[in-house]
Known about the structure:
Layout: E1 10-12, E2 18-21, E3 27-32, H1 40-52, E4 62-64, E5 70-72, E6 78-80, E7 90-95, H2 106-123, E8 132-134, H3 135-138, H4 151-159, H5 164-193, H6 207-223
Parallel strand pairs: 1-5, 3-7, 3-8, 4-7
Antiparallel strand pairs: 2-6, 4-5
Helix pairs in contact: 2-4, 5-6
The protein binds zinc ion.
Zinc ion binds next to loops.
Amino acid sequence: MSIVNLRYHYELAPSPNHGGPRPGTMGVVIHSTRGNTSSHYEEYAATLAWFSNPASQVSAHRVIGYDGGGAICVDDDLIAWHATDHNTRWLGVELTQPRITDPFSEAQYESLAALLKEWASAYGFPLDRAHLVAHSEINRQKSDPGPLFDWDKLMGLLEETMPDAQKAELNRIADIFAGWAKLRHGLSDYINASVGQYGVSDTLDEREGTELDGAVESLRKLAG
Ligand SMILES: [Zn+2]
C-alpha cells in the first residue's frame, strides 16, 4: 500500500446498478468515460449521474476525476456492471476522459496507482498486465481507455514503493496513537468501574478508544 492513498479523497456516490458479492477477484478492468462532455469536471458529474440512474444498468466500483479525487459507486466486494460477462470476477475503475483525444492527468495516474496497490493487497492479485487490463482488451467492441492511456507510466508508478523514512514516520505516528488508545481505554475502564463511587454518575463508552485502535491499524497497514 502507498502513502499516495492519503492524498486523494473519494466521495460516496452509490449506484443501484450492482449485483451481490463477487465470488473472486481476477484483477481490474481500466475504463475511461468518453461521455463527450466539454470538460473533465462535467464528465465526472455526468458519469456519477449516469451510474446513479437505475435505467443505465451500468456502474464501476470507482470513478477518478482530473484532480485525482474520485467516487466510490459500488462497494469493492460487490459486482459492478462495467464489463458484461467479466463483471463477476473483475473490479472496474473509470477515469474521466470526455473524448478519446483528451489526455489523462498526472493526478489521475497517481490516484489510479494508489487504488490498484490497495486493491491488489486486499484481494491478492499481482500488479501485472495479466491482472490489469484495458476494457478494450477484454471486449473488442470497446476502445477505452485508448491510445492516450500510458501503460508504461502506470506500471512505473506501481513499482514505486514508499521510502523507508516515510514508513518510519507512519510507524512513529501509529505508536503515538497506540499510546493514546491505551490511555483512553484505561480511562473508560476506570470511570465505568467507579460509577456509584466518589460521586461518579456517568459511564464513558469505549467508542473513542476503538476508533483510535482502528487508526493505529490503518497507519500500520499503510506503513506496510
Ligand atoms: Zn469501458
